[in-house]
UniProtKB/TrEMBL annotation:
Its main location: other. Belongs to the glycosyl hydrolase 2 family. It comes from Lottia gigantea (Giant owl limpet). Residues 295-594 form the Glycoside hydrolase family 2 catalytic domain. It is an enzyme of class 3 (hydrolase). This is Beta-glucuronidase. Residues 13-192 form the Glycosyl hydrolases family 2 sugar binding domain. Gene3D superfamilies: Galactose-binding domain-like (2.60.120.260), Glycosidases (3.20.20.80), Immunoglobulins (2.60.40.10). Inhibited by L-aspartic acid. It holds the Pfam family Glyco_hydro_2_N. The keyword Glycoprotein applies.
Length: 598
């Protein structure tokens, strides 16, 4: 699936803005379907409130029922189709909506989608009127079940002597708030009826001959396809090389390689534009940003363009006040500015694929991405065929969305699954094998919370990623044990596996403004102590087999309420408002000192 872009042949209209909204809290929880709310504007069937799109709906109002709502939420809006689109292919695209979507156009079901973090689209020519307003309705359900990704469960409390009638709770298997809503753009766009449907680009480099190679394959749909012209433009817009046909390669001499910014401070994230023209009476033109770079893994190194790359990074979340997981350009700009301020050269999209606009920035700014699926918290009861098939589908959707991004340098299929049980082996072997088959050019992994001697899935990964909380979940209050633990842990993994190791989480809960000397858990001083101990431990293994460190977390973020969470998870080195805690200065000094050092 191609990201929608305007061109001389493609027009785009955003449907973002204020939509009408109603959470279906009827006793049966399905009044919307019984009464067919999609058949008329929502405001005609009951009360509505204005709802921002994109945004999560949970934190927009002061209504606890909306914040904690579980079930079907309904949205609608109206749109017009411009007359000059009448003879074009018209596509409706949701960049993401969490979790299960049923989309209606003028009361007719146009598409459904399962999953909260990936785009879905369909042609709507058969549903629309050109001379009238069109009604777009979304029924959206955020219920997590044992077969969703992430999985969850609902428990009903039927003892009416202790709980009010109809009381139930959603149990999450992940440590972040289950924000729901239309989280990213909604748009309609038009293309010619014969159009470019998909482009796959695989970069390679011939180092001996100083050649960049972009292997490409283009799919077209409709009519008799005309000639395909493929041109590669440099940053100045000059054509560097061109080819024709739907499959082939572009060869670039003395190429500008795509480098992580810390490996090339002058010219990081170099992107060419691949301009594809499907010639004909009604030509279609699509411009795809592409980068020339390779990724390889040896027994102890992570190589980008054949040079060792050390990931000094963070884990993130899509999370902010008010908008929850809603796309927000100001927030994206602030986050990338703070990533640069920190000297971060890599982040993991913990624990789901992030917005395409975020990945655009990573591509452009030379930030390496570990692209993670929403497979977070998979336990023994989530390993059945239905779960597996859905997981494979999600990997396919992720691959299709992100395959051409030079910033994406590794796939993470899951976070902290119950990978120490036998049943996990066939499940994760299938997911990892499938991902590797889809994309043989990028390493595949998952983050492991188990020990070297109990995990059963690590044998299948390319890079071992481990999440560790020494001095926090174990030996709380004792940062002095961290170095010993990390070193002995590393030693054991290395004895068993000849694979590079990356610490994909470590950190400590830190309430901004809280201090103690000597430091104690939750103070800012303790976070500094904990991170410094990890840093000293890591330094012994950098350049040997350790290929990266990702701090949990870039910023504080919201979680479900719990006795060990203080209005959310406070392991950020930045506050939720993206202001530094003292540990951020420690990290900044460390990461800046690593520039060009790898
Ligand atoms: C983890 C999880 C992450 C949590 C973190 C924590 O291991 O991967 O989702 O938020 O620990 O703070 O407990």
């Amino acid at each position: 699936m191609l990201y929608p872009r305007s061109s001389e042949s493609r027009k785009m209209q955003y449907l973002d803005g204020m939509w009408d909204f109603r959470a279906d809290d009827s006793p049966s929880r399905d009044a919307g379907f019984k009464e067919s709310w999609q058949n008329q504007p929502l405001f005609k069937t009951g009360p509505v409130i204005p709802m921002a799109v994109p945004s999560s709906y949970n934190d927009i109002t002061a209504d606890k029922n909306i914040r904690d709502f579980v079930g079907w939420a309904w949205y609608d809006t109206e749109f017009f189709i411009s007359k000059d689109w009448a003879n074009r292919r018209i596509v409706l695209r949701f960049d993401s909506a969490h979790y299960y979507s049923i989309v209606y156009v003028n009361g007719q079901q146009a598409m459904t989608h399962v999953g909260g973090h990936l785009p879905f689209e369909t042609e709507i020519n058969n549903f629309i009127n050109v001379n009238q307003p069109n009604l777009l309705t979304l029924a959206l359900n955020n219920t997590l079940s044992p077969t969703t990704l992430p999985p969850g469960t609902i428990s009903y409390k039927n003892d009416t002597s202790k709980y009010p009638e109809g009381y139930f709770v959603q149990n999450l298997q992940m440590d972040f708030f289950n924000y729901a809503g239309i989280h990213r753009h909604v748009r309609i766009y038009s293309t010619p009826k014969t159009y470019i449907d998909d482009i796959t680009v695989t970069p390679d480099i011939n180092f001996n001959r100083n050649l960049g190679i972009l292997n490409y394959e283009i799919l077209t749909v409709g009519g008799t396809p005309g000639k395909l012209l493929v041109e590669l433009l440099d940053r100045e817009g000059s054509v560097v090389v061109s080819e024709t046909g739907n499959k082939g390669f572009l060869s670039v001499s003395s190429p500008h390689l795509w480098w992580p910014y810390t490996m090339n401070l002058q010219d990081p994230g170099y992107l060419y534009t691949m301009k594809v023209t499907l010639q004909g009476n009604d030509s279609d033109v699509y411009r795809l940003p592409v980068g020339i770079r390779t990724v390889n893994v040896t027994t102890d190194q992570f190589l980008i363009n054949h040079k060792p790359f050390y990931c000094h990074g963070v884990d993130k979340h899509e999370d902010a006040d008010i908008r929850g997981k809603g796309l927000d350009y100001a927030l994206i700009a602030r986050d990338f500015s703070m990533l640069k301020w920190l000297g971060v050269n890599c982040f993991r999209t913990s624990h789901y694929p992030y917005a395409e606009e975020i990945l655009d920035q990573a591509d452009q700014q030379g930030i390496v991405i570990i692209d993670e699926s929403p497979g977070v918290g998979i336990k023994s009861n989530n390993l059945g065929n239905e779960s597996l098939n859905h997981h494979l589908e999600v990997m396919l959707e992720m691959y299709q969305r992100d395959k051409n991004r030079p910033g994406v340098c590794m796939w993470s299929v899951a976070n902290e699954p119950e990978s120490d049980i036998d049943e996990a082996v066939p499940y994760f072997k299938s997911v990892i094998d499938y991902t590797r088959k889809l994309d043989p050019t990028r390493p595949v992994s998952f983050t492991c919370s188990h020990d070297y001697n109990s995990d059963k899935v690590v044998p299948f990964v390319d890079v071992i990623m481990i999440n560790r909380y020494y001095g926090w979940y174990s030996d709380t209050g004792h940062p002095e044990v961290i170095q010993l633990h990390v070193n002995s842990d590393f030693k054991e993994w290395r004895k068993l596996y000849n694979k590079p190791l990356l610490v994909s989480e470590f950190g400590a809960g830190t309430v901004s403004g809280l201090h103690a000397e000597p430091s104690s858990a939750y103070t800012e001083d303790y976070q500094v102590d904990v991170l410094s101990q990890y840093h000293q431990a890591f330094d012994e293994s950098i350049g040997k087999f350790l290929v990266g460190e990702l701090i949990w977390n870039f910023a504080d973020f919201m979680t479900a309420q719990g006795s060990n969470r203080v209005n959310g998870n406070k392991k950020g080195i930045l506050t939720r408002q993206r202001q530094p805690k003292p540990a951020a200065h420690l990290v900044r000094a460390r990461y800046h000192s690593m520039f060009n050092a790898t």
